C-alpha cells in the first residue's frame, strides 16, 4: 500500500472520528442495542462483544475531551511520515485545545445561567401579580426557573427569615452569567424601602435582559463569518496534504525529511497560528465591546 493510500485512509478515519464526536456514534450505539436486543447471539444476561465495545467507546467519549484527538492524529501522521515531529506537535496542541473546550463549556454555562435569570424575573413578576408576598413569590419562582444557581440556599433563607435579600442577590450576581440578579436586587430594595411596585420593576428588568440577549444573538450571527474563517484557516493544512497526495507527491516526506520542507513547515505553522489567533482576537474584541 502506498503513502497516498495510507494518507487517504487516515483522512477517512479522521472524518469518521469527527462524525463520531459530533454525536453520530450515540445513534449507532442505540441502533446496535435495539438490533442486538431483538436477535442478539450473546449469552443470556451478557451483552454481545460488539455492544460491550460500543458502550466502552461511548463511555470514553464522555470522559475524554476532544483535545485528546490531537496526539492521536499526531501519532497517525508520525507513523505515516516516519518522524516524531507530528506526535510532538499533537501533544503540544492538547493544552490549547483543552483551553478552547473549557472556554466553550464556560460560555454555554454562562448563557444557560442568563436564560435562567431571565426566567426567574418573569416568573417572579407573575407570582407577585398573583398576590403572593415577595419572599413566597421568590421561592415559587426559583423552583420554576433555577436562576439563583449555587446561591439558592442563601437567598431563599434570607427571604424566608427576613434577612438581607438584596445583599444575598448581589452576592449571587457574582456567578458567571448571573449579572442580571443585580437588577433584581435593586428592584427588591426599591420595592421594600420606598414601597414601589415590585412587579413593574421586574417587567422593566426582564425587558432589558431580553434586549441584551437578543443583542448577543445578533452579534453571534454577525460573527459567524469570522468564526468560519478561523475554521477554514485551521483546515487548510489538511487540504494541502490531500492535494499533494492527489498530485502523486509525498508531502509528508518532503515536510519532515528535507531542510526546505522543515522550513516551510515551521513558517506555515507560525502563519497558521498567527492567523487563527488574529481572527479569534477580533471575535473576542467584538464580544467584549457588546
Automatic annotation (TrEMBL):
Keywords associated with the record: Cell membrane, Coiled coil, Membrane, Transmembrane, Transmembrane helix
Keyword Nucleotide-binding: no
Membrane-topology descriptor: Multi-pass membrane protein
InterPro entries (alphabetical): T2SS_GspF_dom
Transmembrane stretches, start-end: 72-97, 224-247, 259-280
One family name in Pfam for this protein: T2SSF
Coiled coil: 202-229
Ranges where the Type II secretion system protein GspF domain occurs: 122-244
Localization per Swiss-Prot or TrEMBL: Cell membrane
Designated name of the protein: Type II secretion system F family protein
Organism: Streptomyces parvulus
Source organism phylogeny: Bacteria, Bacillati, Actinomycetota, Actinomycetes, Kitasatosporales
Amino acid at each position: 500500500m502506498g503513502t497516498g493510500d495510507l494518507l487517504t485512509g487516515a483522512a477517512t478515519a479522521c472524518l469518521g472520528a469527527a462524525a463520531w464526536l459530533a454525536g453520530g456514534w450515540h445513534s449507532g450505539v442505540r441502533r446496535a442495542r435495539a438490533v442486538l436486543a431483538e436477535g442478539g447471539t450473546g449469552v443470556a444476561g451478557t451483552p454481545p462483544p460488539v455492544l460491550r465495545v460500543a458502550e466502552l467507546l461511548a463511555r470514553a467519549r464522555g470522559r475524554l475531551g476532544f483535545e485528546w484527538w490531537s496526539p492521536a492524529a499526531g501519532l497517525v501522521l508520525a507513523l505515516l511520515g516516519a518522524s516524531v515531529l507530528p506526535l510532538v506537535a499533537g501533544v503540544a496542541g492538547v493544552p490549547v485545545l483543552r483551553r478552547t473546550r473549557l472556554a466553550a463549556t464556560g460560555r454555554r454555562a454562562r448563557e444557560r445561567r442568563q436564560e435562567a435569570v431571565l426566567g426567574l424575573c418573569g416568573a417572579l413578576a407573575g407570582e407577585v401579580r398573583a398576590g403572593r408576598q415577595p419572599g413566597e413569590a421568590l421561592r415559587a419562582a426559583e423552583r420554576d426557573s433555577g436562576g439563583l444557581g449555587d446561591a439558592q440556599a442563601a437567598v431563599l433563607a434570607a427571604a424566608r427569615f427576613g434577612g438581607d435579600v438584596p445583599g444575598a442577590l448581589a452576592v449571587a450576581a457574582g456567578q458567571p452569567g448571573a449579572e442580571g440578579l443585580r437588577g433584581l436586587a435593586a428592584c427588591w430594595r426599591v420595592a421594600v424601602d420606598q414601597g414601589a411596585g415590585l412587579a413593574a420593576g421586574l417587567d422593566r428588568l426582564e425587558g432589558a435582559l431580553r434586549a441584551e440577549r437578543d443583542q448577543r444573538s445578533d452579534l453571534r450571527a454577525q460573527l459567524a463569518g469570522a468564526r468560519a474563517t478561523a475554521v477554514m484557516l485551521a483546515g487548510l493544512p489538511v487540504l494541502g496534504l490531500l492535494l499533494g497526495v492527489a498530485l502523486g507527491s509525498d508531502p509528508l516526506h518532503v515536510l519532515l525529511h528535507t531542510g526546505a520542507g522543515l522550513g516551510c513547515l515551521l513558517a506555515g505553522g507560525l502563519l497558521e497560528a498567527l492567523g487563527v489567533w488574529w481572527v479569534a482576537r477580533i471575535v473576542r474584541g467584538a464580544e467584549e465591546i457588546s
